[in-house]
Amino acid sequence: MNVNEIMLDLERKHPGESEYLQAVREVLESIEEVYNQHPEFEKAKIVERMVEPDRIITFRVTWVDDNGEIQTNLGYRVQFNSAIGPYKGGIRFHKAVNLSMLKFLGFEQTFKNALTTLPMGGAKGGSDFDPVGKSDGEIMRFCQAFMWELWQNIGPDTDVPAGDVGVGGREIGYMYGMYKKLAREYNTGVLTGKGLTWGGSLIRPEATGFGALYFVEHMLNRAGKELKGATVAISGFGNVAWGAATKATELGAKVIAISGPDGVVYNPNGMNEEKLAYMLELRASNRNIVAPFAEKFADATFIPGKKAWSVKCDIALPCAFQNELTGADAEELLANGTWCVAEVSNMGCTPEAIATFQKARILFAPGKAVNAGGVATSGLEMTQNAMHISWSAAEVDEKLHYIMQSIHEACVKAGAEGDYTNYVKGANIAGFLKVARAMLEQGIV
Ligand code: 2IT
């Protein structure tokens, strides 16, 4: 494989799709060496096939807003790879959603899902619908209209969507309601992230953040460090940030920053139960601002226009959006003494930021390993749905723990570079080998 040649070809086919091209380049660069040791991969053109989605479904979503105005958005489902299981991955509602974003996310999801140890292929979907400021009725009508188009393309053994940015339990509920009506069957396995009384799994809402902290604990243990007493800066204040802040606090770390598009909240005394509960309220308000947190809690300060990375911390956890931590942010964190960065958002760091952390040889791990607990627990939800049972919170949490430990071990095994662990390389190689071998065994399809 020649990475530059493949990238040139891909850029020609998909001009301007910067996130997608960025995600593919990162993976190809880190698997190149291993790939070239396997002539059978080269012969079967595994990489050339793996970088293209199996299929993309695009559709128009038309709905009526509260003023009676007709609105039209774009809807997508990118079914990326089904070598190891049915397509699986979230749905993102955000005004910036486009095909480049969903292709990058679907590509990443393929490797992430392979790392979970569970049989799930990779997919992603979404819409440029902007949930900010929308009423509950508008959210419901949009979700219904979205599912009206999507429903025939999904199913428990075909493609199983879930939540992502802008899509939580409420949206999954509205989508499932419409699915059930159209399909005329009670088929819970078609979506994950469901409510607990109608097929959802305990721990699924917490799983991305909890799993991330289990992964970070393993990284720290291996490096002879501790979470207890460490200061943690988190970007975002949504479901993932909440789960991460909750588990970090439980494990004895101090979460000293959360952030939003409007700025950062400096929270020097860390979180407590009341503050964590307020994070959920803030997200549910649909206003997408973090400033009210500092109005409610006197020991917190809001700094407008600043990112979480301006706060001096031991551990930085991007929990919001792709490329939210840049090369300049990485320099600032290093100057402030940060010694561990774990992406909880997908591709939270730019390539420059990753290179900066790796050059400084601090602990760094990529989203596809760190945040895999979310989709892994979706996989556990699918299992419970298929068996028509529900496991206790302790059972699910124990399985999540075990999965995060397995992912950490796989990364360490494939990512060792002398006495440094290159978690990016480890995650990419481990995920790639599993998917590549499955593709090879299934022939030219
Ligand atoms: O990025 C992700 O892994 C998710 N949004 C969760 C996907 C899922 O199917 O649970």
Give the helix/strand layout.
Elements (H helix, E strand, L loop, with lengths): L2 H11 L4 H18 L3 H5 L2 H5 L4 E10 L5 E12 L5 E7 L5 H17 L6 E6 L8 H15 L8 E4 L6 H15 L20 H19 L8 E4 L4 H12 L3 E7 L2 E4 L6 H12 L7 H5 L4 E4 L10 E3 L9 H9 L4 E3 L8 H9 L3 E3 L1 H4 L1 H16 L5 H23 E2 L2 E2 L1 H19 L4
Parallel strand pairs: 3-4, 3-5, 6-7, 6-10, 10-11, 11-12
Antiparallel strand pairs: 1-2, 2-4, 7-8, 8-9, 13-14
The structure holds (2Z)-2-iminopentanedioic acid.
How would you describe this structure in keywords?
445 residues, alpha/beta, five-stranded mixed β-sheet, 17 helices, 14 strands, 48% helix, globular, binds (2Z)-2-iminopentanedioic acid
Write up this protein.
The chain is α/β, with parallel strands linked by helices. It contains 17 helices and 14 strands. (2Z)-2-iminopentanedioic acid (2IT) binds next to strand 3, helix 5 and helix 15.
In the predicted model, the low-confidence regions spanning at least 5 consecutive residues are: none
> Count of DSSP E strands?
14
The hetero compounds bound to this protein are: (2Z)-2-iminopentanedioic acid
User: What structural class do you assign from the helix and strand content?
Assistant: alpha/beta
- Which outline best applies? globular
Considering DSSP H and I runs of 4 or more, what fraction of the residues is helical?
40-55%
The overall average pLDDT, rounded, is 98
Order of strands across the main sheet? 9-8-7-6-10-11-12
Measured distance between first and last alpha carbons: 20 Å
- Main beta-sheet strand count, sense and barrel state: 7 strands, mixed
User: How much strand?
Assistant: 15-25%
Tally of separate helices = 17
